[in-house]
Amino acid sequence: MLKVYAIDGLTPVVHPSAFVHPSAILIGDVIIGAHCYIGPLASLRGDFGRIIVEQGANVQDGCILHGFFDTDTIIEEDGHIGHGAVLHGCRIGKDALVGMNAVVMDNASIGACSIVAASSFVKANFIAPPRSLVIGTPAVIARSLRDEEIEWKRQGTRDYHQLTLRSMTTMRCVTPLQEVEASRPRMPGASGNKPKGAAS
User: Fold this and answer.
1) In sequence order, what are the residues at sequence separation of 6 or more whose Cβ sits closer than 8 angstroms to the Cβ of residue 164?
2) How would you classify residue 119: left for phi > 0, otherwise alpha for psi between -120 and 50, otherwise beta?
3) Where is the stretch described as Disordered (predicted)?
């Protein structure tokens, strides 16, 4: 059963085609669009500002989304938010990626098809134009992304589109096995390797 909580009369909205892991928590003014993936232990707290996750976006394990009163925290279509990232009152553009453990602060805007590198700290009011590689603490714009790097990101997002379907159709709570089976299979499917020189 999903951990979804209303507060002050506002109830989270989850599109029927989205997958929200049962350990994730949605509170208040949270809107999850079609075909989204919300991973284990993600916390989307719409108890101050509104949180919007648009179609096809993913919010991975342990991410935190929050914002001040009268603000919106928005992940646009096919946004890709890596494990443990924190978004606070910011906008992540269409087809952009925020790397693992990165922090994006209030009123920052990450342009479409951009990548925020893992563990970067994006200060409040920072503006990254489309196709930017954003890296560092505090973050700066390092360069423009190459086409192959953007395609690498898009393939990763397509993998999460498939994970949404896989999770909705095959994930279930089970009792663990006591030993490894003979000829244990691997998970099906792989999108290929990261391109040489791609952003982290």
Assistant:
1) 17, 18, 19, 35, 36, 37, 58
2) left
3) 178-200
Q: What is the DSSP string of 143-166?
A: EEPPHHHHHHHHHHHHHHHHHHHH
Tokens found for residue 154:
């898009």
Amino acid of residue 106: D
Class of residue 188 by CB neighbours under 10 A (exposed 0-12, middle 13-18, buried 19+):
exposed
What is the rounded CA–CA span in Å between residue 115 and residue 160? 17
User: pLDDT for 130-156, tens place per residue?
Assistant: 999 999 999 999 999 999 999 999 999
As a CATH number, domain 3-144 is: 2.160.10.10
pLDDT of 122 over the 80 cut:
yes
Which residues lie below 8 Å from residue 106, measured CB to CB, with a gap of 6+?
67, 68, 71, 88, 89, 90, 124, 125
Per residue in 44-67, pLDDT (tens digit) is 999 999 999 999 999 999 999 999
Give the pTM: 0.93
Distance set, CA 43 to CA 84, 87, 102, 146 (Å): 10, 11, 15, 32
pLDDT digits (tens, 9 = 90+) for 95-107: 999 999 999 999 9
Q: Where in the chain are the domains?
A: 3-144
The first and second tokens of residue 43, run together, are 């916390």
